[in-house]
Amino acid sequence: MEPRRFQLEGPSIDALKAKVLAEHGPRARIIGAEKVTVGGIGGFLARHHYEVTVELPPRGRRAAPVEADLPSRAGIGALLASAEEAESKLSPRTPPLPDVSTATSAFADLIADLSQNTGAPARAPEPARAPEPARILEPVEFPQISSPGPGDAVQRQEVPSPLAGAGDLVIVVGLGQDPMLVCESMAAAAGFSAQALRAAGAVGGGGVGRAGDRRSVATARAAGVLAGHPIFLAYGIGRGVSEIARHTTLISALSPDQLWVAVDAGRKTEDTAAWVGAVRAAALVHAVAVEGLEGTSTPQTVNTLGLPVGWLDGAAAPAPIL
Hints:
Strand order of the largest sheet: 6-5-7-4-8-9-10-11
Low-confidence stretches: 61-80, 86-98, 131-155
Oligomer: single chain
Largest sheet: 8 strands, mixed
Number of strands: 11
Radius of gyration: 21 Å
């Protein structure tokens, strides 16, 4: 069978590469790219964007990448084959994507399919949360946290806690192995086994399953609904920030129910603020998980990030500020 090809457009080549990886996985290849200029007079007031041609491998019978903690592979294989058959009937310019949300009929079908083929009882997902109104992402001022007074609003703010509903997706982003350490402690504190853990990006997970694209995340969430636990996804952005744009684009595409940043209190404040700011520019960050309190005499510098603290060295934080 011939490879499938289609075109995408975006503001930059890096953004398009990240979009292709997030939506179509590592088997997709960009085989052509063009810079397009629209309008303008003599180069002035012109608008620019990029168009790329993407090639996907021919369709065919293959084993579906089912998570290791599922006892049967037949259900997911049939589900993905059905999805690909439906996709082939659509225009190649609008390839369908699996919805990561648990509040869709497609997700309900996935649950029923997994239940039938794994022998696990199907649990109905929790009622869907009301959709949030459209918002423009921009820096938000956090209440004064350097020296709050007795009546300051920040003292009355609740400490954020990890979501624990069946199928909830909690993503923890950080450098090195910090996000995996936080995810492991969150799962253990809530009484969940390693089956609730997933890894993505540059983080090493050992025996933990990988979930680095929307399809594998949807599969993981379905497994979580069946088993009655959330999914704690540790996303590592490496030790540097040279590819931060690619990582943040993918994190946003995974649509987490809750997004945390894992920071080491002993690292330079400016360095931490730089990568945390990049993550916040791409997606809504709900809270901070702090590691390494004993390695610094000034852990309060974490407060300058402008985010509430919800996790401290492997346990729930007593207050939203240090």
